[in-house]
UniProtKB/TrEMBL annotation:
Residues 159-216 form the CTLH domain. It comes from Jatropha curcas (Barbados nut). Keywords: Cytoplasm, Metal-binding, Zinc, Zinc-finger. Transmembrane segments: none annotated. A zinc finger (RING-Gid-type) spans 338-381. This is RING-Gid-type domain-containing protein. Signal peptide: none annotated.
Length: 395
């Protein structure tokens, strides 16, 4: 239910994560190669010491010089200092890039993107309280409602209490509360085209199969699966045939029907259907708002930096001069941006459909027709349009 904010965070952090993994890989490789160089040097020194110790009697100065000269040549060939300097340089380059990526991704002062907005704190408190109830944090929601005095949100409490009771039961593979709710709301689910009820019965049927009772499985299929056969014949057939594979269900060609992931999916489907019948969105409005804010924050920070010299104008701004692009998951209605003025449509400046079927905002039409109150030329085609025939679109 709360994946939207998480997804937005992951998108923002993907570059940081990739860079960190690159630095970590470089560090491990550098450490490994450094150890190899140290081992080579140690090996050559230990070998020469062994040569010295193997000589019977005192070692002559000439022999010592010969052994040390040979060691010097070996170490020069290994060139440990050059190797270590090269490895250090490569690691330093990777490490120096990482802070730059961090600075680019994480702005130390996101308050720059703040502008004065008149919030209805009563509604904000309602949204937060509803969010807590969605998550099953009922004590926290009750506390907020009592302190903020937003009693309107209490209507959702009992509804989400019921949902979480069902979800808690599903976690321990108890489907009775879910079956009872689905049965009570059978007609509404059918009207919405939901097959939630069948999914619940399917899981119940699978649990009976696993217990190894063919009679119980046949009776359950006859009583609870057969009513769905007219719309879901193929799936019902697969379930009924699986009775023949009892005791060796893992070899059944459609063994994916018995995957434990169906329990997790049922919780999601249950939540989605429950919220749908309540007329509520599946995701929390607060989560969507935060996620959208996270995605749009980089654009707002860039705009704030550009307008840094006009701080007062930025703080007093009621409408952004540029659109903030968001993913489709955050777009719940059409947004009109006038192709002439580049301003987003609003209640005061709605989109207007011209007879030539091009659309401009009301203020743009007013400016273009200023010299002629009756006719003006469309900027996108040769047609001349009467101002009176421009029709306001629903906004």
């Amino acid at each position: 239910m709360e994946q939207t904010a998480k997804d937005a965070f992951e998108r923002q952090l993907s570059t940081v994560k990739d860079t960190f993994e690159h630095v970590a890989k470089k560090q491990k490789l550098s450490s490994s190669k450094c150890q190899q160089v140290i081992d080579q040097v140690s090996h050559e020194i230990e070998q020469k010491l062994a040569n010295i110790k193997s000589v019977e009697g005192p070692v002559s100065p000439a022999d010592q010089k010969s052994i040390l000269t040979e060691l010097k040549h070996k170490l020069n060939a290994i060139s440990p200092l050059n190797q270590l300097e090269g490895l250090h340089k490569e690691l330093h380059i990777a490490l120096s890039k990482y802070p730059k990526i961090l600075e680019k991704t994480f702005n130390p002062d996101i308050s720059k993107a703040y502008i004065n907005v008149d919030f209805d704190f009563h509604i904000v408190n309602q949204i937060i309280a509803s969010h807590f109830y969605r998550l099953g944090l009922f004590d926290l929601g009750d506390c907020l409602i009592n302190e903020a005095g937003v009693s309107e949100a209490t209507a959702l409490r009992s509804q989400f209490v019921e949902l979480h009771q069902i979800l808690d039961a599903i976690k321990v593979k108890n489907l009775e509360p879910a079956l009872k709710w689905a049965s009570t709301n059978h007609e509404k689910l059918k009207q919405n085209g939901s097959n939630l009820e069948l999914k619940i019965h399917r899981l119940q049927f699978v649990e009976i199969l696993k217990k190894g009772s063919k009679t119980d499985a046949l009776n359950y299929a006859k009583n609870f699966l057969s009513p769905f056969a007219s719309l879901h014949m193929q799936e019902v057939q697969k379930l009924v045939v699986s009775i023949c594979w009892m005791g060796k269900l893992e070899k059944y060609p459609y063994s994916d029907l018995f995957s434990p992931t169906h329990w997790e999916l049922l919780s999601e489907d249950m939540t989605r259907s429950f919220c749908n019948l309540l007329g509520k969105s599946y995701g929390s409005p607060l989560s969507f708002t935060i996620a959208a804010g996270i995605e749009g924050l980089p654009t707002l920070l860039k705009l704030a930096n550009v307008m840094a010299a006009k701080k007062q104008e930025w703080l007093a701004m009621k409408q952004l001069p540029i659109p903030v692009e968001l993913d489709k998951e955050f777009q719940f209605h059409s947004i009109f941006v006038c192709p002439v003025s580049r301003e987003q449509g609003s209640d005061d400046n709605p989109p207007m459909l011209m007879p030539c079927l091009h659309v401009l905002c009301k203020q743009s039409i007013a400016k273009m027709s200023k010299g002629n109150s009756r006719m003006f030329k469309c900027p996108y085609c040769p047609a001349e349009s009467p101002v009176a025939q421009c029709r306001q679109l629903y906004f």
